Amino acid sequence: MTSAPAPTSAPPRTRRQWVTLGVGAVVLAALCVLAAVWQWHRYTAREAQIHLVESNYGAEPVALGEILPAPGAVLAEDDTWRPATLTGRYRPEDTVLLRNRPVESTPGFHVLVPFETDDGLVVVVDRGFVPLGEDSSKPDAFPAPPDGEVTVTVTLRADEPASSRGAPAGQVQAISTPQVLAAGPSGASWAGGRTVAAYGQLRTEDPAPAGSLLALPPPDLDPGSHLSYTFQWCVFAAGAIGGYIVLWRRETRGTQPTAGDLLLAGGEEGTRAPRPPRRRRPTDEELEDALLGED
């Protein structure tokens, strides 16, 4: 009976293999660090946005002229989300709908109405949200703004970049003042260069309208998961380098054989206790001699 062959260990890695593994670990760690840096920048940018909202959104409203004093004025980044008051008249005949901008996961339209201030400025006001109608391409109906002179309080937002996507007549894909005015029935010529590079999200109207649209929600203050992702990528980077070091130490320092190793290597001489000899079955002749001897 032959004994089982002894297990053979893998040959040690060559220097070239160790270098290849090391380079791979460094590259992997570098990629993880880049991902961590990217997530960190996103985290800090989001924190700056949240700080700006917290500083401006709850401030006392000021007259629009204090922030946007003349036609063509551009809203400063530090003034985003600030409340401002406008006194003048709506132009409901030039109402335009903003499409593909759901509110709290509800599809529908934002109702954009140009507003002429007593100071001669023209500002697009996002009066609120209306859900889809029976025909999903437009709402069934929505309330009109107040007639005559009205004072509105809005949250100032910077104009969005003009969209290159097409839209049905009277609708737009972005709140860009020139694009919104051009989509209205009267076109943009009536504004006569009196616009500003900003729009307002409605807060209040005085006098109040007969019917109201669904109010837009306050800005989102959720910081997101960017910080936790930053830590995770750092852990992955450390794991890539640490794993290489652990593997190198195990293979270069060697380990003492365990009891399990000795049992697996039992086929080798001196690693297994000797077995007692088997008892041989007597032959027929031996049985016959034994019987005759008894006689």
List unreliable stretches of 5+ residues: 256-271
H-E order? HEHEEEEEEHEHHH
Helix-strand category: alpha/beta
Gyration radius, in Å: 40 Å
Distance N to C terminus: 40 Å
Number of helices: 6
Query: How many β-strand runs?
Result: 8
- Sheet with the most strands? 5 strands, mixed, barrel
Strand content: 15-25%
Widest β-sheet, arrangement of strands: 2-4-5-8-6
The percent of residues in helical segments reads: 25-40%
Number of domains: 2
General shape: elongated
Mean pLDDT score: 86
Describe this structure in words.
- With 295 residues, this protein is an alpha/beta fold.
- It folds into two domains: 77 residues; 148 residues.
- It contains six helices and eight strands.
- Strands 2-4-5-8-6 form a five-stranded mixed barrel.
- Strand 1, helix 2 and strand 2 form a beta-alpha-beta unit.
- Helix 1 packs antiparallel against helix 4.
- It starts with 14 loop residues before the first helix and ends with a helix.
- 21% of the residues are buried.
